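Let us begin with a simple case.
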Amino acid sequence: MLNGSGTPSLAQPGREYATLLIGYAVLGIGCVVFSLAALLLNLLLRGRLRNRFGRRMATYGFRAYLFGLERIRAARFDLEALDALGDRGPLIIAANHPGLLDAPMIVSRLPDVVCLLKSSLLRSIFWGAGARLAGYISNDWFLGSVNLAVEELRRGSQILLFPEGTRTEIAPLNPFRTGAAYISYRSRVPIQTVIVEQDTNFLGKGYPFFRRPGMPMHFRVRLGVRFDPPDDPREFTDTLRDYFIGELARSSNEVPAKR
C-alpha cells in the first residue's frame, strides 16, 4: 500500500503484524477447544468410529482455519488438486515439507488420511488428544510405524507422510527416510507425490515465530507422479528424492497461483 507520496504506508507493517497475532490467537484457541473435545471423545468413543470422527474433526477444523487466514488476508491457498485424491481409496501420500502449514493444508482436503508424525506431537497438550482421536501414527518407531501404516491402508485409509521426516533444513531437501518406500513395498499400495509450493519461508525450520511475513502469503499444492510399489525400497528412496528435487527446481521461479 502506498501513501500520497508514493512510498509504502507505515501502517501496513502494523496491520500485517496484527494479522499475524490474530492468526496465532485463532489457532491457539482452536487447538484448545479441539483438544478438550478430543479428550472427552477419546473416553466416549471406541475403535474405528473414534478414528473416523477424529479425522473428520481435523479436516473440517483445519479447513475452517485456512478459510479464516484467507478472510483476514494473511494467506491464499490453492489446494483444489487434492480433491482428486479423496475418493481414490488407499494411497501413500508423500509430500515435501517446507513449513508447519503443510500438514494442515493436506489434511483439510482429505477426510480419511492418517498422518505419520513425531511422537512429541502425540504428547503435545495442543495436538496430542486430537492426534490420538484420529489414530495418527508416531514415526519414531520404524518397524512398528510401518506395520501400523500397512494396517491402516488395508482398512482403506490413506497415509500422509513427509519423507524428510521434519521440515526442510538443508536446501533443496533433507535426506529422505525410507519409511514411504517400505510401507509401499509391504502394502503394495502406490505412492502419490504431492508438491508444496509457497512464496514465503513462514514457519519453516528456524523461522522466528514472531517474524512478520509479507502478506498475503501464497501456497499451492499440486499433484505429482504416482509411483508403483517399489521392489527395492532403499534404491527407490533415492529415486523419490531425485524426483522431488527436479520438481522443486522446475517450480522454484513460479509464484503459487492466486485464486
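The second case is a distinct protein. As before, the sequence precedes its C-alpha cells.
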Amino acid sequence: MTIAEISVGDLAGHPAPVVVDVREVDEYLSGHVPGAINIPLSTLVGRENEFAVTGKIYVICQAGGRSMRACDHLSQVDHLNDVEFINVAGGTGAWILEGNKVVTGDQPN
C-alpha cells in the first residue's frame, strides 16, 4: 500500500487539518504544529481506536520517518478503512524551518 504525503507548505495552507504528532511527549512539549494532538509512536499500538474518524488525518513527526511508520501501521487496521492517513514530509523540523507557527506545552493550541 502506498502512503500519500503532503509537504509542510501544503499542510500550512490547509484550512482545518486533523494533525497527529507521533513524536515523544518531550518533543511535542518543546514545539508542535498548532492543533496537533500527541499520540507517540511508542504508544500507538493499542490506541488505534483514537483514529476512528472519517476523512483525512495528517501524521507528523520530526523528519518524516516515524510518521510514515505510523501511517503504514494505521492504514492496515481493518476498522480504520474510512480514514486516509497522510504523511507530512519533512515533519516538524521542516515546519519550523519554513517559519510556520509553533505551539509549546501539552495543549494542541
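Strands lie at 4-7, 19-21, 37-38, 55-60, 83-89. The CA atoms of residues 29 and 105 lie 4 Å apart.
Keep these points in mind for the review questions at the end of the chapter.
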